[in-house]
Automatic annotation (TrEMBL):
Subcellular location(s) of the protein: Membrane
Tree of life domain: Eukaryota
Keywords: Membrane, Transmembrane, Transmembrane helix
Name of the featured protein: Transmembrane protein 14C
Length: 103
């Protein structure tokens, strides 16, 4: 089983981002959202590493993050964290969405 380092990095960024939001602003919402997204993406990374065609969970999670953080980025205009997560989510959607066509 080869590790999908992109997926694990994406999970780590989301998890740590939620933790940073909590530590800097005391935002429980950031902590819960970051931990939830990071955990879902960590599970998805494990699934994709075991079977590169098992992309459902990572696609659903990436789509939700893209829509949520994309709307926050458009409203607030701040790159961190909304813009960064939007870009990583878009890359993830392209990367794993392209595997659906070859399935």
């Amino acid at each position: 089983m080869s590790r999908d380092y992109f997926a694990f990095s994406y999970a780590f960024i989301c998890f740590v981002g939620g933790l940073i939001g909590f530590l800097k602003a005391g935002s429980i919402q950031s902590l819960v959202a970051g931990a939830g997204a990071g955990t879902a993406l960590g599970l998805a990374a494990t699934q994709v590493s075991a079977n590169p065609r098992n992309v459902r969970l990572i696609l659903v999670t990436s789509l939700l993050l893209f829509l949520l953080m994309g709307s926050r980025f458009l409203k607030g205009g701040k790159f961190m964290p909304a813009g960064l997560v939007t870009i990583i989510s878009a890359v993830s959607l392209f990367r794993y969405g392209s595997r659906l066509g070859s399935a």
